Amino acid sequence: MARGGFPGGMGGGNFNNLMKQAQKMQRDMEKAQEELEALEIEATAGGGAVKVTVTGQKEVKNITIAQEVVDPDDVEMLQDLVLAAINEAMKKAQEAYDEKMGKISGGLGGMF
Fold first, then answer.
1. Could you tell me what percentage of the chain is helix, strand and coil, using 3-state DSSP and rounding each to the nearest 5?
2. What distance lies between CA 74 and its chain's CA centroid?
3. Confidence at residue 9, expressed as pLDDT on a 0 to 100 scale
4. Measuring CA to CA, which residue among 27, 18, 16, 35 is closest to residue 104?
5. What is the C-alpha to C-alpha distance for residues 49 and 104, in angstroms, rounded to an integer?
6. What is the DSSP-derived secondary structure letter of residue 98?
7. Cβ-contact 19, 36 below 8 angstroms
8. In Å, how far from its chain's centre is CA 36?
9. d(Cα 84, Cα 68) in Å, to the nearest integer?
């Protein structure tokens, strides 16, 4: 019968190292989350007519619309520009998130 209650001879030292690694990863992830929250990402549409700013946590912080694209007779175009800018900003935010979290989780195969 194995001592320590760990099957296959997994000793307490290995378990302690694993716990330390898990705690470090948790701290690193918390730090990355804070950095992502502070990160501001901009995207534009219509040659800069619409600008959207989001955080690394994918929260829309600001939308700026140039006055010359506000046409009451063509609301659809403005809606399309806003949608395009938001989608591009969200894509960039997701890329930033994936990059930051990928550095932490490394080769864990998407566990986190």
1. 60, 15, 25
2. 34
3. 52
4. 27
5. 37
6. H
7. no
8. 6
9. 18
Residue 12 is predicted with a pLDDT of 64
Q: What is the pLDDT of residues 58-100, one digit of tens each?
A: 899 999 999 999 999 999 999 999 999 999 999 999 999 898 8
CA proximity to 42, closest of 80, 98, 91, 81 = 91
The mean pLDDT of 38-43, rounded to a whole number, is 93
Q: Round to whole Å and give the CA distance between 31 and 2.
A: 39
Q: pTM of the entire structure? A: 0.69
Residues contacting 91, CB < 8 A, separation 6+ = 43
Q: How far is residue 44's CA from residue 62's CA, in Å, rounded to a whole number? A: 12
Q: What percent of the chain has pLDDT over 70?
A: 84
